Amino acid sequence: MPLSITPAIAIPDWELTETYIRASGPGGQHVNKTETAVQLRFHALSSPSLSPAVKARLKTLAGRRMTADGEIIIEAKRFRERERNREDARARLAALIEQAARPPKPRRKTPVPHREKRKRVENKKRRSEIKKMRRTPTSE
CATH code at 69? Predict the structure, then answer.
């Protein structure tokens, strides 16, 4: 079943690699012999499912979760059950890609109010006077 993120973006299962590893945490002796944590790998930069703009935003959003060759690695070990950890890892990947799919809001320049300009100039004048007073007196 493909991982559906937005109506336009769906990642097929063949692009995702899941590895089960041993998790630390509660569980007594059982935790030492079962592999309930999930390591989800998704090669984002070579994925045909994502547009170049989404890939670029995803690279900055993923941070250290993305390797040098463009693979996103998500480890999920929050729960004791393997299936819940698997769902958690897929949900976290989907949330990350969904966030990258939203284009950033363009910044609109707003004019600086006249009062702020005046205040800045007055502060500069005041500071200048203070520094002038610190100077050694000249013999005139």
Answer: 3.30.160.20
Per residue in 45-98, pLDDT (tens digit) is 888 888 888 888 888 888 888 888 888 898 888 888 888 988 999 899 888 888
Helix (H, G, I), strand (E, B) or coil at 79: coil
3-state secondary structure of 29: helix
Q: What is the DSSP letter of 56?
A: H
Residue 101's identity, in one-letter code, is A
**Inside any domain, residue 72:** yes
Other beta carbons within 10 angstroms of residue 15's beta carbon come to 17
The rounded distance, in Å, linking the Cα atoms of 62 and 139 is 65
Q: Which two tokens stand for residue 24?
A: 């630390």
Other beta carbons within 10 Å of 5? 21
